[in-house]
Amino acid sequence: MTDTSWTIKGREFVHCNCAYGCPCQFNALPTYGDCKAVLSVAIDEGRHGDVDLSGLNMAAIMAWPGAVHQGGGHIVPIVDERADAKQREALLRIMSGQDTVPGATVFQVFSTTYEKVHDPVVAPIELDIDIDGRSARLHIPGWVDARGEPIRNAVTGAESRARINLPNGFEYDVAEQGRGWARTSGPVDVQLEDSHAHFAELNMTESGVVH
After folding, report:
1. Which of 57, 86, 182, 187 would suit a FRET pair with 156, their CA atoms being 20 to 30 Å apart?
2. Residues 185-210: pLDDT tens digits?
C-alpha cells in the first residue's frame, strides 16, 4: 500500500489585499469584498510518503471575486525548480489538498473554492522569511515580486508588534502580523500595496496543524 501521509515543518509568508490583521482570520468578510493573495512556504523539514521535501520552497498566486468560502477562485501553483519529478508531484498533491483529511489544512480548504487551477509553474523561488523580524522577500522571476515588513506606529514610526493565535486553525498556530507589497504577472493579476501580511511557523500533516 502506497504511503500518502505527509508532514511539513517550515515558515510561511502570506500577503493579501485586506487591511492589517485580515478579517478573514476571524471568520469575517474580506476588507474590500474580494480576496487576492500571494502565499509562499519555505520547507525546513518535510516529506510526502518516502519523498523528502526538506529545503524546498513552494508558492501560489490566488484570487477570488468575493470571500474565499464563496468560491470562484483562481490559483497559479508554483513549485521549486530544484525539485525532481517525484518532489514536484508531492508538492502539488499537498498544495491541491490531496492526501489530506477534508477541512484539515489551508491547502485542502482552499482547494474546494477554486473555479480554475492554472497550469503549475516550475521556477526558481527566492524566498527569505524572518518571522521574529516580521519581514520577508519573495522573488519568482517573471511571476512574483513581493516583500513584507513590520507594521509601524503612524505617529512615532516605531515598529508595532501584534500576533494572531488560532488554537484550532487550519493554517498556523501563531502568526506575526505585518504589511506587504506585491506585484504578479501571468493569468492571475495581484497588485498589493501596503496591506496585510503574516509570517508564521508551519507544522502540519495530512491530519491538520500540529498545535
Report:
1. 182
2. 999 999 999 999 999 999 999 999 99
Burial 7-44 (b: 16+ CB within 10 A, else e): bbebbbbbbbbbebebebbeeebbbeebbbbbbbbbbb
Which of 60, 87, 56 shows the shortest CA–CA distance to 184?
60
Q: Output phi, psi for 194, to 5 deg.
A: 50, 60
Task: Give me the half-sphere count of Cα atoms (radius 13 Å) on the Cβ side of residue 3.
Answer: 9
What is the rounded CA–CA span in Å between residue 105 and residue 6?
12
pTM: 0.96
Determine the distance from the C-alpha atom of residue 142 to the mean position of all C-alpha atoms in its chain, rounded to a whole number: 19
Instruction: Write phi, then psi, for 109 (nearest 5 degrees).
Output: -65, -50
Running DSSP on this structure, what letter comes out for residue 186? S
